[in-house]
From TrEMBL:
Gene3D superfamilies: MFS general substrate transporter like domains. InterPro entries: MFS_assoc_dom, MFS_trans_sf. PANTHER family: 3-PHENYLPROPIONIC ACID TRANSPORTER-RELATED, BLL5896 PROTEIN. It is found in: Cell inner membrane. The keyword Transmembrane applies. It comes from Gehongia tenuis. This is MFS transporter.
Length: 393
């Protein structure tokens, strides 16, 4: 059995705490908002529109992290503000209070996630393990889901305090994690222009956006749709748990498959197919047990996109813009989520949620078509190279 450097334990704790905490809010937050009288259209706006602000905030966070003495300091400060936001969230049911705190939290979370990934990637390269190995700790979100559902049945504010516990674990481990310096600190400052001129990165922005339309819609409305079918919050917890199970094999094999397939292309195609089939089932099936079982096999859209695309953006960026490159991917991802959430909330006034699950699933097919073009071109290039060599000989 491979021995890992001791630093991996702090990385596991940091990532497990962060993902477990945020899964609670993004799964049960819309359910909480519905329970205090906020309608689906407003919920879609509150969960989606803040992501528009991240278009401007995330690039700033990326540059700040790349220029800081350590990226850890920026992450820890962001995490402290996030914890404070969640602790005071249930103190008032006013729509303005909920809106302001949701916007603040979503913007901070969207920037903290790629920042944490940047720390994970550089630590993995330094100490000889892979990002997928660290990301395995995200399976601990199963624990938060199992706790969150039953607690929501007892008290709809309990998730905010459970959030603080998991985020506290993340904070403690982040303080112990390896320090990752900003590569522009004390040296020449670099703008974001090299990233925007990078054709490899910019080409993959579009499929990232398209895939995350369906993910954003699912995150915002699955809980409402599922409980609206008669399922309890405890069953919603089990549904979320089942949707995480597929992450384990992807994380265990993801690095090897990425190298074997030569990039993220096949991952995106499979992720899109999962989104289409899952959309069809949620749109037309009324059997709660069947939906639960199907989620085990069809909920890989997020991880099948996130893992290879994070790797792709990180490895194709210059050293001094590693954090910024992950912010660029996060911007594309969050624009897609925003379109799914806000567009879904608006269209729900015209179409039932079931039809919208089918529609957003079909949008993911466009991402599969997009990545198939560079994949075919790359294969043709690989075939021509041996032919050229033979001709020269």
């Amino acid at each position: 059995m491979k021995k890992f450097h001791k630093s991996i334990f702090s990385m596991w704790g940091m990532l497990a705490g962060f993902l477990a905490a945020n899964s609670l809010f993004f799964t049960y937050g819309p359910v909480y908002m519905r329970s205090i009288g906020i309608d689906n259209g407003i919920i879609g706006l509150l969960t989606g529109l803040p992501l528009l602000l991240t278009l401007f905030i995330q690039p700033v966070f990326g540059l700040v992290a790349d220029r800081a003495s350590t990226k850890n300091k920026v992450f820890i400060l962001t995490l402290l503000v996030m914890i404070t936001t969640m602790v005071i969230f249930p103190l008032n049911h006013s729509i303005w209070w909920v809106a302001i705190l949701t916007i603040a939290f979503t913007c901070l979370q969207a920037s903290a996630n790629p920042l944490m990934d940047s720390i994970c990637f550089e630590s993995a390269n330094l100490y000889g393990y892979t990002y997928g190995t660290i990301r395995l700790a995200g399976c601990c979100t199963m624990i938060s889901m199992l706790i969150g559902g039953p607690l929501m049945d007892v008290s709809n504010v309990s998730i905010f305090y459970v959030y603080a516990v998991f985020a506290g674990l993340c904070l403690f481990c982040a303080l112990k994690a390896p320090k990752v310096k900003g590569h522009q600190h004390g040296g020449q400052k670099t703008s974001l222009l090299p990233l925007l001129k990078n054709k490899k990165l910019m080409m993959m922005v579009v499929p990232s956006l398209l895939i995350y339309v369906s993910v954003g819609f699912y995150n915002s409305f699955f809980g409402i749709h599922f409980t609206g079918m008669g399922a309890s919050n405890s069953l919603l917890a089990i549904a979320t748990l089942f949707s995480i199970i597929i992450e384990t094999p992807v994380l265990l094999l993801g690095d090897k498959l990425y190298k074997k397939f030569g990039g993220p292309y096949w991952f995106i195609i499979v992720a899109a197919l999962c989104a289409v089939v899952k959309g069809l089932i949620l749109g037309r099936c009324t059997s709660i047990p069947f939906i639960l079982v199907s989620l085990i096999f069809l909920s890989g859209t997020n991880i099948l996109t996130y893992l290879p695309m994070s790797t792709y953006f990180n490895e194709n960026a210059p050293l001094e813009l590693k954090a910024s490159s992950l912010m660029l991917f996060a911007v594309a991802m969050n624009v897609g989520k925003m379109l799914g959430s806000v567009g879904g909330g608006f269209l729900n006034n015209l179409l039932p949620l079931g039809d919208l699950f089918i529609l957003t699933g079909c949008i993911s097919l466009c991402a599969a078509l997009w990545v198939s073009v560079p994949m075919i071109l790359e294969r043709r290039r690989n075939r021509r190279e041996p032919e050229k060599l033979e001709a020269n000989l």
